[in-house]
Structures are given as structure tokens and as C-alpha cells.
């Protein structure tokens, strides 16, 4: 293989992944527009026409904007690589004659800052125009920038030293560097998962223990019935940023927390909250978290083994617009180019995720009343303006959760079984 083969191969995947995503999104927009006039029969007594049309308009607006974003990021990736942008940045920083590790850290920070700035107009538009227009946004510009500064500081304090460590392992040139990187990356991820609920999440949100006696009682009964221990049920002030509601589990090992957005708590009845929680517990009890960690570990091991082979093939750098190969350029190219190819595996990951959602729903149906989960889901779909009528192909490609009609039909079937 030659540099030219790599270049043509990359251009092929770049264009193919763009066309595929563009086509799927167009299909989704058309499908939703075609079903906008009427609420699907199964929901006609539960969801108003107004809410149905709002969900359609919201999804179409976001999809159309997504295509603009996709076009921009595709062109940008071509400029970074084939256009010589990465090499230009590397040359600029090399002029300071730092050690290879510091140069690598600086190039990666530079790339992140430039990408962050270029992405900002899109992120501002999404929050302050689209979310605002549909009544979901609660952020002010001041809060938006405060969040950004906090995120940058967290990255600088935690992410950059770890990045330096990884580059040091890569620079060491031991033939097993990729195994050491894999081990440290895995350890680091586990540590972050463990630290996240009590040390990182509180930087951005306030967490207050759930006090409401009746609900607290219901929840501890459910936890006991399912044999689950956590160190607390917390309410998060999600309403300060957005009116979208959610519930999740966070943490790892002995530092697990159950978190409800205050927005969710305000819109659901106690029985419905219990059912939503039972669904989340189902993810734990059916070992979805462990499976996810194991597959993440395997995929990163495979990725690093591949990178260890690619790192010495100078024609690959050349084919991707980098004339001066280095270990940090290998890492950057790998991070930038892999998604263009791995996007084609998306349907597989979505399928696995939807399988887990069905299993968690079954667990909830066994341990609480499935009807409560159904009414909770209908409320959540309505309040979050999730469309009931996505294009089936688009949905099977992207959706980590089954569309509402499919999910509710499944819940009804396990409930009567
Ligand atoms: Zn779930």
C-alpha cells in the first residue's frame, strides 16, 4: 500500500459516511413531516395534536441543523488532515523546541482549543435559538460561559496530566507501550467513574438528598426488593439549564448514586418515579453496566493494538496530510479518522443498546407495575418532545432507545404474559 491508497481510501470513507448520514437524516425529516398531521392511533387519547406537532417540528429543526453541522465537521476534518492543518499546527509548535512530550501535549491542547472555538457558534445556536424557541432552554449566556470555563479547568487539571502520562508511555518506545497505555487508560476511566458522582458532578450541579418521606419509603422498599445498595438518592437541579427531564445511575462500586432531575420529579407521580427507577435498576441487575465496561475495554485494546501497528507505517501519515510522523500525530490521526469508519458499526451498537432497554423494561415490569412505566414514558416523551414517528431506518441506525410505540407495545406484551 502507498500513501495515495490511504488518501483515496480516506476520501472514500469521508464521503460515504457523509452521504449515509445525510440520507438517513433526510429520510427522517420526510417521514416525520408525512406523519405530522395526526397523532398515531395508539396515542390519540394520551398525546394532544399540539404536543405531537411540537415534537415533529422540534425534531425536524434539530435534524436540519444537524446536517449543517455534519457538513461543517466533514469539511473541517478534511482541512485538518488532507489540507495540512495538523502539520501546520505541529510546525508552529515545534518551532518552540520543546521536548516531544510537551510538543505533543501542546499540539493536542491547541487542536482542542481551535475545535472548541469553531464549534461554539453551533453550540450557542442550538442552546439559545433552537432549545429557546421550543421552550426548553433555561441557560443564560453567563451560565453558559461559566460552564465552559469550569469544563476547561476540569480538563486542564485532570485530563492534561493524564494525556502527558500517555504520551510519555508512547515516547518510551517499549514494544509493549500500547498495553501500558491500555492498562492506565482503563484504570483512569474506572477512577473517573468512581470519582464522578461525589467530586466532578457537584462542580456543575447541586445535589440534594431526597427528603420526601412517602417517595423515599417507596424507593427504599424497591431497592430492598431488588437487593440493591447505593449511597443515596439525590435530586439534581437540572431545571437550571433545561426543562428536559431525566433519571440516571452514576458511580461505580461502593460509590453509586441514584439521581433524579428535579424536572422529572415535578412531572411524574410517585408510582411512575418508582417504575422509572426500577428500569434503571434493571440495567444494573442485568449486568448491562459490566457488559458495557467489558466491551469498552476490549474495543480500546483492539484500537490500541491497531495503533501500535499503524504508528510505524509512515505512508499512512503521508496519506492523511502529515509529513512529519510522530507518536502524538499517530494518536491524533487515530482519534480523528476512526469515527469516519466506525460510524458504519453504529447500527450494531444501537441494536445492543435497544436490547438492553427492553431487558431493563422487563425487569421493571417484574418488579413494579408496567402500566406506571408506560404512563411515565408517555409523559416523558411528551415533555421532551421526542417524536413518536421517526423513520424506521434512521431509528435503527441511531437510536439507543426504542421508539415510544415499540417500547410501549413491548411493555404491554410482557405485562400480560
Ligand atoms: Zn434504560
Q: What are its keywords?
A:
four-stranded mixed beta sheet, 4 strands, 417 residues, mainly alpha, globular, binds zinc ion
State the end-to-end distance. Answer: 57 Å
| Helix-strand string | HHHHHHEHEEEHHHHHHHHH
The helicity comes to over 70%
Question: Largest sheet at a glance?
Answer: 4 strands, mixed
Widest beta sheet: strand line-up:
1-2-4-3
Ligands bound to this protein structure? zinc ion
Structural class estimated from helices and strands: mainly alpha
What global shape is seen?
globular
C-alpha Rg (nearest Å): 24 Å
Mean pLDDT: 94
Q: Uncertain spans, ≥5 residues at pLDDT below 50?
A: none
Gist?
This protein is mainly α and 417 residues long.
Strand-helix topology:
Blueprint: H1 3-34, H2 49-80, H3 85-94, H4 100-133, H5 141-171, H6 177-204, E1 207-209, H7 213-225, E2 233-236, E3 247-252, E4 255-261, H8 262-267, H9 270-285, H10 288-310, H11 314-319, H12 327-342, H13 346-367, H14 370-383, H15 392-398, H16 404-416
Parallel strand pairs: 2-4
Antiparallel strand pairs: 1-2, 3-4
Helix pairs in contact: 1-2, 1-15, 3-4, 4-5, 4-12, 5-6, 6-10, 7-9, 9-13, 9-14, 13-16, 14-16
Bound molecules: zinc ion.
The site of zinc ion has 4 residues, from helix 9 and helix 13.
Task: Give a verbal description of the structure.
- This protein is mainly α.
- It is 73% helix and 5% strand.
- A 4-stranded mixed β-sheet has the order 1-2-4-3, with helices on both faces.
- Zinc ion (ZN) is lined by residues 279, 283, 357, 360.
Amino acid at each position: 500500500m502507498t500513501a495515495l491508497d490511504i488518501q483515496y481510501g480516506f476520501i472514500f470513507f469521508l464521503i460515504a459516511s457523509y452521504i449515509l448520514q445525510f440520507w438517513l437524516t433526510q429520510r427522517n425529516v420526510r417521514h416525520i413531516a408525512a406523519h405530522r398531521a395526526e397523532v398515531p392511533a395508539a396515542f390519540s387519547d394520551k398525546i394532544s395534536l399540539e404536543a405531537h406537532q411540537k415534537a415533529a417540528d422540534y425534531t425536524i429543526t434539530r435534524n436540519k441543523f444537524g446536517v449543517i453541522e455534519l457538513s461543517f465537521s466533514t469539511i473541517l476534518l478534511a482541512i485538518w488532515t488532507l489540507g495540512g492543518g495538523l502539520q501546520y499546527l505541529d510546525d508552529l509548535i515545534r518551532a518552540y523546541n520543546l521536548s516531544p512530550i510537551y510538543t505533543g501535549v501542546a499540539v493536542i491542547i491547541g487542536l482542542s482549543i481551535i475545535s472548541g472555538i469553531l464549534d461554539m457558534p453551533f453550540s450557542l445556536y442550538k442552546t439559545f435559538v433552537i432549545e429557546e424557541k421550543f421552550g426548553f432552554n433555561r441557560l443564560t449566556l453567563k451560565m453558559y460561559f461559566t460552564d465552559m470555563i469550569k469544563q476547561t479547568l476540569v480538563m486542564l487539571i485532570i485530563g492534561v496530566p493524564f494525556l502527558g502520562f500517555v504520551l510519555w508511555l508512547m515516547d518510551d518506545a517499549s514494544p509493549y507501550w500500547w498495553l501500558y497505555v491500555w492498562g492506565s487508560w482503563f484504570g483512569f476511566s474506572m477512577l473517573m467513574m468512581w470519582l464522578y458522582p461525589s467530586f466532578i458532578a457537584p462542580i456543575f450541579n447541586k445535589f440534594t438528598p431526597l427528603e420526601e418521606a412517602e417517595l423515599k419509603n417507596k424507593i427504599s422498599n424497591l431497592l430492598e426488593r431488588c437487593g440493591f445498595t447505593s449511597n443515596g438518592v439525590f435530586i439534581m437541579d437540572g431545571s437550571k439549564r433545561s426543562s428536559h427531564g431525566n433519571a440516571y445511575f452514576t458511580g461505580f462500586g461502593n460509590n453509586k448514586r441514584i439521581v433524579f432531575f428535579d424536572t422529572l420529579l415535578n412531572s411524574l407521580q410517585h408510582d411512575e418515579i418508582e417504575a422509572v427507577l426500577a428500569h434503571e435498576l434493571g440495567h444494573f441487575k442485568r449486568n448491562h453496566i459490566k457488559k458495557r465496561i467489558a466491551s469498552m475495554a476490549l474495543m480500546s485494546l483492539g484500537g490500541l493494538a491497531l495503533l501500535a501497528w499503524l504508528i510505524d507505517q509512515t505512508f499512512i501519515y503521508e496519506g492523511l496530510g502529515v509529513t512529519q510522523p510522530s507518536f502524538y500525530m499517530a494518536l491524533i490521526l487515530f482519534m480523528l479518522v476512526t469515527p469516519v469508519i466506525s460510524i458504519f458499526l453504529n447500527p450494531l451498537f444501537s441494536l445492543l443498546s435497544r436490547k438492553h432497554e427492553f431487558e431493563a423494561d422487563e425487569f421493571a415490569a417484574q418488579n413494579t407495575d408496567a402500566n406506571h412505566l408506560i404512563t411515565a414514558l408517555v409523559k416523558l416523551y411528551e415533555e421532551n418532545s421526542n417524536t413518536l414517528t421517526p423513520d424506521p431506518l434512521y431509528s435503527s441506525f441511531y437510536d439507543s432507545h426504542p421508539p415510544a410505540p415499540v417500547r410501549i407495545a413491548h411493555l404491554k406484551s410482557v405485562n400480560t404474559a
